[in-house]
């Protein structure tokens, strides 16, 4: 082989070696670059997983809260529905009780709590004062004639002493609900306000006729009780005669009003807390229904006590 040929072979070998070294370097560079990119991607991937985890936990908490809220609202709806059923039943019974003059011991047991709350919360006192204001406002706007025939009828059984046995029974029933004095306090309040109204009407010149469901055989005791409690100077005290003792009270009052009108009296107003004295014929110009302490203010009770839980 010539010298030129040997020189070319050495240069070619040197170039191949250089080429291999360069190629190895490039491969190493590419390998190192690929490894770096993979680590960065892994970092991003792990961060994404953490973010998704946090999002899922937040979503789970939100769903739990929403579920509890829905359960609470559902519970409130069920409670309100049940209370509404009780309310409607007691409201119907209250009207029945007033129309038939039932006593407190005849109440349905689950309907006694609203009766107690009506007094204890002060709503009965407010209703009584408002009604008294209406009565006084009406009679202050008119004047009786001088012939003494414009009369006002007042039911006095709200202020007369109840049968002792019945009073004890009522106190025992209401004492079971922690309100042994509620009924007596309500009766005392009504007595004071009726007496105040009585004296104002009398001072304004209105002739007053008193009504009671008691028998005339109790007249002396009734008169004595009325005078001792501040009621005096009435025109007439109407009590049941012997043939009226077993008469329906509504018929009894209607019969007596008919006699008054026949005698020339003009009934200007009738005041009572009982429907039997405020229904029937010959009622005159105006009737005033006083609130009764032993019945119910259901609208107030449903608004203040029975609300859905938040």
TrEMBL record:
Source domain of life: Eukaryota
Entry keyword set: Membrane, Transmembrane, Transmembrane helix
UniProt KW ATP-binding keyword: no
Transmembrane segments: 40-65
Gene3D superfamilies to which the protein is assigned, alphabetical: HAD superfamily/HAD-like
UniProt name for this protein: Acid phosphatase
Source organism (scientific name): Quercus lobata
């Amino acid at each position: 082989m010539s010298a030129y040929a040997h020189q070319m072979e050495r240069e070619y070998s040197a170039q191949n070696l250089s080429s291999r070294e360069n190629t190895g370097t490039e491969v190493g560079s590419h390998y190192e670059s690929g490894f770096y990119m993979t680590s960065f991607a892994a970092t991003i991937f792990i961060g994404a997983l953490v973010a998704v985890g946090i999002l899922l936990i937040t979503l789970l908490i939100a769903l739990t809260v929403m579920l509890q809220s829905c359960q609470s609202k559902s519970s409130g709806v069920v409670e309100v529905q049940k209370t509404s059923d009780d309310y409607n039943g007691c409201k119907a019974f209250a009207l029945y009780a007033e129309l038939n003059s039932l006593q407190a011991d005849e109440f349905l047991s689950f309907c006694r709590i609203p009766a107690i709350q009506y007094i204890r919360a002060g709503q009965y006192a407010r209703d009584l004062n408002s009604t008294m204001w209406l009565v006084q406002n009406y009679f202050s706007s008119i004047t009786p004639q001088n012939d003494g025939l414009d009369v006002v009828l007042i039911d006095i059984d709200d202020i007369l002493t109840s049968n002792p046995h019945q009073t004890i029974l009522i106190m025992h029933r209401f004492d079971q609900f922690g309100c042994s004095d509620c009924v007596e306090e309500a009766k005392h309040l009504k007595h004071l306000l009726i007496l105040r109204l009585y004296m104002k009407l009398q001072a304004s010149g209105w002739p007053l006729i008193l009504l009671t469901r008691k028998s005339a055989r109790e007249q002396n005791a009734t008169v004595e009780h009325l005078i001792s409690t501040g009621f005096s100077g009435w025109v007439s005290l109407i009590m049941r005669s012997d043939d009226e003792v077993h008469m329906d009270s509504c018929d009894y009052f209607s019969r007596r009003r008919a006699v008054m009108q026949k005698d020339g009296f003009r009934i200007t107003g009738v005041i009572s807390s009982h429907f039997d004295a405020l229904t029937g014929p010959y009622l005159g110009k105006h009737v005033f229904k006083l609130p009764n302490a032993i019945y119910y203010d259901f609208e107030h009770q449903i608004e203040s006590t029975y609300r859905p839980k938040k």
